[in-house]
Amino acid sequence: MQTKHLFLIFLFALGFGFSAKAQEYNSAIGLRLGYPASISYKQFISEPGAIEAFLGFRSYRYYRWVNFGALYEHHLPISGVDGLNWYVGGGASVFFWNYKDGFPDTEDGKTSIGVLGAIGLDYKFANAPVNLSVDWLPVFFVNGYGNGFAGGYGAFSARYTIN
Fold first, then answer.
1. Residue 47 DSSP label
2. Is the dihedral of CA 87, 136, 54, 150 positive or negative?
3. Is 11 left (phi over 0), alpha (psi -120 to 50) or beta?
4. What is the model's pLDDT at position 6?
5. What pLDDT is stored for residue 103 in this prediction?
6. Domains in the chain and their CATH numbers?
7. Model-level pTM greater than 0.90?
8. Which pLDDT does position 98 carry in this prediction?
9. How far apart are the first and last CA of the chain?
């Protein structure tokens, strides 16, 4: 067989591998169990692309915050494991901070805007309406409390899928 034919077969096989379905559900709703704990809704808007919106709450000794945000996530299949994808993306979030008395050098409350990155793994069970994911969301605060880069927020998510 000529090298040209082998190359064409390789290109065909490569193209077939990338045309595999990147997602197994249309939308899902559930919980992001992490930092902060959140309610999450994910909706696919194209074969690889999804929008995820979330509303979270975190409380600590001296402060608490509520945040809401949205991400665009581009899903790519991992060959060899049906239903498993990895994703990468980004978005933004708004944080509403509230401080208790005794927290040094703070005002009563602040609002921060964060630019988020996203990288994670997403798995959809074949015979159950369940989606699990784990991710890391590095954040850069544009203003307010935590101004600058923060290490990010990781979470394990469990969602009910809707087709």
1. S
2. negative
3. alpha
4. 42
5. 55
6. 23-162 (2.40.160.20)
7. no
8. 82
9. 46
Tell me, what's the pLDDT at 146? Answer: 65
Tell me the backbone φ, ψ of residue 74, rounded to 5 degrees. -105, 115
Listing DSSP states for 68-116 in one string gives: EEEEEEEEEE-TTSTTEEEEEEEEEEEEEEEE-TT-TT--SEEEEEEEE
Reference 91, options 110, 111, 74, 66; nearest CA is 74
A 10 A CB-CB count for 137 gives: 25
CA dist 39 → 53, 78, 99 (Å): 8, 26, 23
Query: Distance (Å, rounded) from C-alpha 145 to C-alpha 163?
Result: 40
Tokens 């401080």 appear where?
Answer: 99
Residues of the chain falling short of pLDDT 70: 1-23, 101-108, 145-146
The pair phi, psi for residue 160, each rounded to 5°, is -90, 125
Answer whether 162's CB lies under 8 Å from 27's CB. yes
Rounded CA gap, 136 and 77, in Å? Answer: 18
